Amino acid sequence: MKRWISLLIVIILISGCMNRAEEKDITLRVLYFDTDEFMVKYGSIFHAKYPNINFEVIPLSAYYKEGLSENTLKQLIKSEQPDLVYIDETFFESIISEEILVDLNPYINNSSDFKIEEINPNLLEYLRSKGQGKIFALSPTFSAKALFYNKTLFDQYGVDYPNDGMSWDNVFKLASTITNSAQNKSDFVGLFYDDTLFGMAVDMAASQGVRYVDTRGKNATINTSSWENILNPILEGAIAGTLKTRENINEIEVNPGSFPFTSGSIAMTVDYSYLIDDLLDADFEWDIVTAPVDPAYSKSASAISPNALFGIYSGSDKVEQSWRFIQYINGSEFANTYQMSNNYSVLLSREGYNKSIGKNLESFYNIAPLEVLNIPLSLEQSEEIFKTINQELWGAINNDISMKELLSSMQQEIQTIINR
What we know:
This protein is α/β, with parallel strands linked by helices. The chain has helices at 2-14, 35-49, 61-66, 70-80, 92-97, 105-109, 121-130, 151-156, 168-181, 197-206, 225-240, 275-279, 319-329, 332-338, 379-399, 403-419, and strands at residues 26-32, 53-59, 84-86, 141-150, 189-193, 243-245, 266-272, 286-290, 300-301, 304-306, 310-312, 347-348, 368-369. Strands 4, 5, 6, 7, 8, 10 and 12 form a 7-stranded mixed beta sheet that branches. Strand 1 (26-32), helix 2 and strand 2 form a beta-alpha-beta unit. The radius of gyration is 23 Å and the shape is globular.
């Protein structure tokens, strides 16, 4: 990443972007996760183009460790008086409702060289829906998962490829079909999920708007029919061997530092776009379709979210300079230079700037973000819940515990952790 930043700065210097009339030095105060991360990703590039604009970062990392709440974030914004605010998507709508952010529409409309029509319309519609038709923040990149599949294996066993908009139930059925077609070979996996069993369950639940605790973080909410429907196919797949997670994938031979899917023995996996980097030199044919969706929200997925939302604090006296920053990192120049990194760890919000690799990258863009669920627990509470409930799931698999008993036990375990 740092080498890429250095390259971009050199490009900016060579292109003559530094040949500007001298302007008064100013400092923009930025509420962001970490100083070094901000400068590496955004600050250094922008400063190379606008050397009169410096940054003072107000780090949020310590607050995230304790479990950042929306009230704490609002208080920080008002007490620290930043110019630029990085907004966690979880709190975006709440922050907007407090009238803390500047409406960016007038600046977007008055900027002749800012081509907003190049930004993915699904992301724009999502941002407008949060702001009741207005845009209060923009994100140059977004995170997205998709369903990766090994075309070579599907061809070998004569099974139809996955397609866009599949439900989780259909993905599990397809995993079972191709596993059976492979005659249950010991080194074959129908579906791999790079997380724990409960991590997978939580991701599936998010696509349906289902929580394991209530919105106040006071009561466990896992003993429900919704959770039963989520957990059933996971447990059945794990028992049948059609589903593997990072906990029991050891039988697949994987090169150190590589993702299991690159082994060529896995038919399907759901993962982020960064998997593409490892697959560019794969010795098998592969492609991508959209991440599994809930049939009730077939055009939206929790696997997609803007991950670098920046807005301008309404109390700032440097709104014009702050907009210049947001305009630049969301503009075509930044997108054009970013794609030179040939890195797919995140995807550009501007369409048409990713390097063509002959794969269905549109799968990352053809689906809209779904509401992000705020789980108001500390990091320690979340980690303990994930560890405890995951053990419960494996216990159910190994000891033939009924779903009714399992849900009741998980409910009690989560409630105990919350009450401490």
